[in-house]
Structures are given as C-alpha cells and as structure tokens.
Design a protein that fits this description.
This is D-glycerate dehydrogenase. InterPro entries: D-isomer_2-hydroxyacid_DH, D-isomer_2_OHA_DH_cat_dom, D-isomer_DH_CS, D-isomer_DH_NAD-bd, NAD(P)-bd_dom_sf. It holds the Pfam family 2-Hacid_dh_C. The protein is α/β, with parallel strands linked by helices. It folds into two domains: about 5-100 and about 290-330, Rossmann fold, CATH 3.40.50.720; about 100-280, 3-Layer(aba) Sandwich (Rossmann fold), CATH 3.40.50. It has helices spanning about 15-20, 35, 40-45, 60-65, 85-90, 100-115, 120-125, 130-135, 155-165, 180-185, 195-200, 220-225, 240-250, 290-310, 320-330; strands spanning about 5, 25, 45-50, 70-75, 90-95, 145-150, 170-175, 190, 200-205, 230-235, 255-260, 280. The strands form two sheets. It has a seven-stranded parallel β-sheet with strand order 8-7-6-9-10-11-12, with helices on both faces. Helix 6 (about 100-115) crosses helix 9 (about 155-165). Bound molecules: glyoxylic acid (GLV) (2 copies). One glyoxylic acid binds near residues 154, 156, 157 and 206.
C-alpha cells in the first residue's frame, strides 16, 4: 500500500498529482491541531507530513502519530517542531532553506526603505489631500552611508548584507560563530553584541527562534541603540520582547520598527503596535511571493517523497536520523 501522508500546506494541482501517484493524501486545514484532527485509526497509519509553521510538533503530537517517519516543513524556520524529540523517535525533519533567501532579503529592504523614507505616511499624506492643504510632508532619512547591523549571519543575513552593498551602506554583524568568508569578501564587519546595537542605524534580525534567542532582543538592547535607529524583524516574533519594544517605541528610545513577525500571529488589531505611528507592519509575508512559494512547495514535496522512498532529501534538519536509517538498511 502507498504511504499515508497528511498535508496542511497549499499544494498546487500539478504537484498534488505527483504526490497522489505515490502517497495517499489526507488534507488537514493549516492551523488545526494534528493530534485531534483525525480519527485514531487514521493517525496510527500516518508516515509523513507536509506542514506549515502553524502545525506544532510536540511530544503529544508525536505520540499520536506512532508510524511517522518524516515531517517536511514548508518553511526554513522549524521552531514549530521539537527537534530533539523528533530525533529521539527517528523522525526525519526537512525544511526549505535557500529558495526563500532573496524574497526575505527583499522584504527586509522594503521595510528598511519604508521606515527611512516614511513611505506609509507619505502615501496617506497624498491620498488625504494633506499635500495640497499643508504642503510637503516632513523630511526623511538617507539610507546611503548609514550603518546596517545584522543580528545573525546565516544564509538570509548574507543575502541582506550583499544587498546592502548596492545601497552603499556600511554593514556590521554579530553571530554566534564568526563568518570568515563574509568578512573576507567584504560583506560585513564583525562586532561584539553590544557594539552591534550601539553602532547600528538599522538593526535587522536574522536568527532562528531557539530557547537561547527567545526574548534576546529586549529593554537592554533598546537602551543601547541610538534614539534615531530603527529595528527590523523578518525572522520570528518571539526573538523580540514585544512589550519592551512597545515601551521603547512609545518612549522614543528608538525611532521606529518594521515588523513582519510578532509574538502573536495573526496580530490582533487591538495590539498597541497597531496604534503606533512609527511602526510598519506586515503579515509574516517574507517568503510570500508566487515564485518563492512555488520553489518552497516544490522542495517540501520533493523532501517528503525522497525521504519516503529512501533517497537522501536535499534539506534535512536532523540528518543524523537519515544516517542512522541508511546504516541499518545497509547492514
Ligand atoms: C517562514 O517564516 C519560514 O521560516 O520559512
Ligand atoms: C536560516 O536558516 C537562514 O538561512 O538564514
């Protein structure tokens, strides 16, 4: 019989046909709790999942899926999955790195330019007739010559650094591990963490959400930043202590923020962030372009089919599970 798989991510029709030729597909709406979405006899037989970051994989979900072999995440970030627990149970976890780097970097720059040039308020100024009534809006800020600080220098951080060169920005970064190649290619200069926050005119976050990074940007960091500096976050909301950010924005300790991610998503309109004039908000759309989402779902489905059929998948989060399985097979 064909392996049974749960799909919670949007799969285009042509790709779905390929998938259906090799698997029995069970659709579950994105965001539904996997452990109680299906009757137990179906859960018992599930071998694979293609899911969005809204599907949580904790101990209870792994318990509910005893035959699970592969979770293919339709995202590069995998903070929705308890990786040590997956590894312990020999569940391979795959993700979609690289194909979204450009789109996320582009959105980072979109937010940066919106903040520096006050584009959202500028648009309202024209539409409301204020241009004719009150004249031109207030002057804004140059981007060229300013310092962009990157917290995190993974693949996305690197593409943001490359892009910043075209804007003639000075790029500095802090990362757990230094990136000798990025430094020698002239993409970015290393700074210790304190210096990164103190020197940046724009501080952009490109770290994954982990227990170590959760709330790692908070009151202390905002106090260290320049009052003219902007924060940009296209990574994961909980990396930032949002209550501390709101305080800093209200008190003018920093100039503004561009946020694609928040602690609670979807962000309720009642959030104080929605009432702050110096904030630009987006609905977690860093990778949400037609081309990038297609490349991501292609990769996520390929990762699943490869894993189920015994071909080494392109993008594994816990490759030790794969290595263990192929040793057993070869023995
Ligand atoms: C989206 O947030 C991703 O991690 O790909
Ligand atoms: C994250 O995985 C990145 O590629 O920066």
């Amino acid at each position: 019989p064909q392996p049974r798989v749960i799909i919670t991510a949007p799969v285009p029709a042509d790709l779905r046909e390929q998938l259906a030729a090799q698997c029995e597909i069970i659709d579950v709406p994105t965001g539904a709790g996997l452990a109680d979405a299906l009757p137990k006899e179906q859960l018992d037989s599930i071998e694979g999942v293609v899911c969005t970051v809204r599907s949580k994989f904790d101990t209870a979900v792994f318990d509910a899926l005893p035959r699970l072999r592969v979770v293919s995440n339709f995202a590069v970030g995998y903070d929705n999955i308890n990786i040590p627990e997956a590894t312990k149970r020999n569940v391979l976890v795959c993700n979609t790195p690289k194909v979204l780097d450009g789109a996320v970097a582009d959105l980072t720059f979109g937010l940066l330019i919106c903040l520096a040039r006050d584009l959202v308020r500028g648009d309202a100024h024209v539409r409301s007739g204020a241009w004719a009534e009150k004249g031109a809006p207030a002057l804004t800020q140059d981007i060229r010559g300013k310092t962009l600080g990157l917290l995190g220098m993974g693949r996305i951080g690197r593409v943001v650094a490359e892009t910043a060169k075209a804007f003639n920005m000075k790029v500095i970064y802090h990362n757990r591990n230094r990136d000798a190649e990025a430094e020698s290619l002239g993409f970015a200069e290393y700074r210790d963490r304190d210096a990164l926050f103190a020197e940046s005119d724009f501080l952009s976050i490109h770290v994954p959400l982990t227990p170590e990074t959760r709330h790692s940007v908070g009151a202390k960091e905002f106090a260290a930043m320049k009052p003219t500096a902007y924060l940009i976050n296209t990574s994961r909301g909980p990396v930032v202590d949002e209550a501390a950010l709101i305080d800093a924005l209200k008190a003018g300790r920093i100039a503004g923020a561009g946020l694609d991610v928040m602690e609670q998503e979807p962000l309720p309109a009642s959030s104080p962030l929605c009432a702050l004039p110096n904030v630009v908000l987006q609905a977690h759309v860093g990778s949400a372009t037609v081309e990038t989402r297609r490349a991501m779902i292609d990769l996520a489905v390929r990762n699943l089919l490869d894993a189920l059929s015994g071909t080494r998948p392109q993008a594994m989060v816990n490759p030790e599970v794969w290595a263990g399985a192929s040793e057993t097979t070869n023995a």
